[in-house]
Amino acid sequence: MNAWLxxxxxxxxxxxxxxxxxxxxxxxLILPALLALLIGGTLFGLVLVTQQAVTHAAESxxxxxxxxxxxxxxxxxxxxxSTAQTLAQSRVNRRLTFLPGSATASVLRSDPIVDAGGAPVxxxxxxxxxxxxxxxxxxxxxxxxxxxxxxTGRGSGVIR
Length: 160
Fold this sequence. Notes:
The structure is a single chain. The N and C termini lie far apart (93 Å). The longest helix has 47 residues, at 20-66. This protein has helices at 2-18, 20-66, 78-95, and strands spanning 104-109, 126-134, 150-158. The chain contains three helices and three strands, in the order αααβββ. The model has no long low-confidence stretch (mean pLDDT 79). The chain has one domain (2-158). It is α+β, with helices and mostly antiparallel strands.
């Protein structure tokens, strides 16, 4: 009986030696799929973090625009909009310093009943800031990766 245990133990060791090549082949077949999952998860995480940062920058820029006093900043609209545009762009630049490249902010009046050219800015005036960031700034290789070319964030608010 003891001899039978010895032969069974040596047989399993021989079987394990013959399986070493099969393990290597299985690993080489699975490795590309694992790398694709790792790179894909990292890449889409990067896209989502960038989207969140751009949206947060737009909301921060709206807050800066709404903090302007329309009475002291040309309440007839033209000077106010240029000041708001400059302030929004500087706020966006400050919020997105960690991203490569630069983003563009645009400030629009989103009141449907007034013309943005000369309508006065007062309480109840609604503004929208749109921030666009070209995701191509990341230089992630050729265009085989399914990511958006431009990431857009929006924020809006009403002067009280």
